[in-house]
Write a structure and sequence with these properties.
Rossmann fold; 7-stranded parallel beta sheet; alpha/beta; globular; 269 residues; single chain
Length: 269
Amino acid sequence: MKNFENKTALITGGSSGIGLAVAEKLVALGTNVWILARRQNTLQSASQELEKVKLHKDQRIITIQADVSDYSALKIALEKAIAQYGAPDLLVNSAGIAHPGEFISLDHQVYDDVIRINYLGTVFTTKIVAPYMVERKQGYIVNISSLAGVVPIYGYSAYAPSKYAVNAFSSILKTELAVYNIKISVVYPPDTDTPQLEFENTIKPAITKAITESGGLLSASAVADTIINGIKKEKFSIVPGTEGKLLKAFSSIVGRVLHNSAVRKAKSK
């Protein structure tokens, strides 16, 4: 996708974090943006911020209150918007949660919540929107994964598998939807300065903190810039940050190093 002006983008998780940062970049490029999230108050605040960066006065900033893990309610909300404004040209699946903790201690409900929002939320939204792209024989879908979905990290037994699933889903979509001229990108952000990370840092096991603190930190704006550039180049894998690129390129080696380090730290507790 070379040109974003006058296109329409739907961004799940668009009221904060990476989703909001991508929304801001797109609005500034002249895109009509729909942001979808669960909380009306954050949607309203985000909408007000997006209004300030519009390239054209007639650009549409639409808020959609919905839960991506609730397929029936999500379908109703999205089809209502599509009936009124037309189908989006670009879908960014950014809605997600993370809840670090050691497997033995984590409640089983955490696993259910994380997989339903991070993975099934991506599948559900795509399932609703993709048929409109197929009908037009064009579209672009961006799925936000994580470097934790490439390299296994101590303390992310709930989060990482949900992102591994997003990776596999994206690869299969790339093959199945290519015949309809629908492009797919999957994004692997490192730790990013967002409200979600702030929450994670309050509950991370000490070993997880020690591992992740050495990985660097990117701003949501910097991640969004990389995503926009990746879409322009129609890159399947989008990896923000130099450290992130090295981590993904040498994931098997890094995985062994992190495993050995985590085991040593656990034994010394």
